[in-house]
Specification:
24% strand, 32% helix, alpha+beta, 336 residues, Phosphoribosyl-aminoimidazole Synthetase, Chain A, domain 2, 60s Ribosomal Protein L30, Chain: A
Length: 336
């Protein structure tokens, strides 16, 4: 696709990734556990749910920090990437209505370094506290034949009542989209960002602070805000973590409707710098990055103002950014 040329040149093909996932899922869907399946069907959603009994489900998510770790390696500073690791998992879990409760981290490295692992632990602890989860264990694997530095990922679990799972199936035209601001790049699109910004020194201060600090800004954790919204009397119909693939993540909630984003939140300057230096189109920028919109809550139109007030207490700048439309499977946005 022409609009994805820059990302493809940087070494990432979303089309190939989608095909790979499809090939993998085609095999996994044929698993016969020798008993009735406990899986709650949520195809394409942000997390998976297993039915424990007639009332309770356990939600699962797994994700990593990606090539943001290479920025941490260049700076020799690993004390924030743990927050990213927590965020990428728990933000997905809460999208199905689950309360995240625990996480196991997985560190892949060429050689275990106590100082680096301690720094990673600092971020993991901070992220866990922000999300309200525990980390009862994890794994460090020394695989110098596979990796040359450090990779960080995790798997998280949460609890959700089966009747309270947020599936997106109740979303209908006219519902309001409430946007929560991102803190920057979060943990997506770093392959493209690093390619574009690679010639700049990490102490470049044209954005008002060192570029390295901007690139390592931790991913926002939206769990407490989302849980409070779910526990309120607001009619919450969908929750979307805006990561790689940008606003198209909304289609993971329901493809029977469309989504129109008419009022974009302020775009952090780092995105403008990447677009300018990389000569990247608006279309591709919005398909690769969150562009300042990190999370979206879909609520009944009559509850929009209530939701904005509640969410804004956690994430100042929360606002109504659009609405659900009748154009099935179509995501549109206003001007940058």
């Amino acid at each position: 696709m022409a609009e994805q040329e820059a990302y493809t040149r940087a070494g990432v093909s979303q089309r190939h990734a989608d095909a790979a996932v499809g090939a993998l899922v085609a095999q996994l869907s044929r698993i016969d556990p020798g008993r009735p399946s406990r899986v709650v069907p949520l195809p394409g959603h942000y997390a998976s749910v297993i039915r424990i009994d007639d009332r309770t489900g356990v939600a699962f998510a797994t994700d990593g920090v990606g090539t943001k770790m290479l920025v941490a390696e260049r700076l020799g500073r690993y004390d924030t990437v743990g927050i990213d690791c927590i965020a990428m998992n728990v933000n997905d879990l809460v999208c199905v209505g689950a309360e995240p409760i625990a996480l196991l981290d997985f560190i892949l490295c060429s050689e275990a370094n106590p100082e680096i692992c301690e720094q990673i632990g600092v971020g993991l602890r901070r992220g866990a506290e922000l999300a309200g989860v525990e980390i009862p264990g994890g794994e460090i694997a020394q695989v110098g034949d596979i990796v040359s530095g450090f990779e960080l990922s995790a798997s998280a679990i949460g609890l959700v009542e089966l009747d309270d799972i947020v599936t997106g199936e109740r979303i209908e035209p006219g519902d309001a989209l409430i946007g929560l601001p991102s803190s920057g790049l979060h943990s997506n699109g770093y392959t493209l960002a690093r390619r574009v910004l690679g010639d700049l020194p990490l102490d470049d201060a044209r954005l008002g602070r060192p570029l390295g600090d901007v690139l390592l800004e931790p991913t926002a954790i939206y769990v407490r805000a989302a849980l409070e919204l779910l526990r309120s009397d607001a009619d919450v119909r969908g929750l979307a973590h805006i990561t790689g693939d940008g606003l198209n993540n909304l289609l993971r909630l329901s493809r029977d409707v469309g989504y129109e984003v008419t009022s974009l939140l302020p775009v952090p300057p780092i995105f403008g710098l990447i677009q300018e230096l990389g000569e990247i189109s608006d279309v591709e920028m919005h398909e690769v990055f969150n562009m300042g919109l990190g999370f979206v809550c879909v609520v009944a139109a009559g509850h929009a103002e209530q939701a904005v007030e509640l969410l804004g207490r956690h994430h100042p700048g929360a606002a109504i950014v659009g609405q659900v439309t009748e154009h099935a499977g179509v995501v549109t946005r206003g001007p940058v």
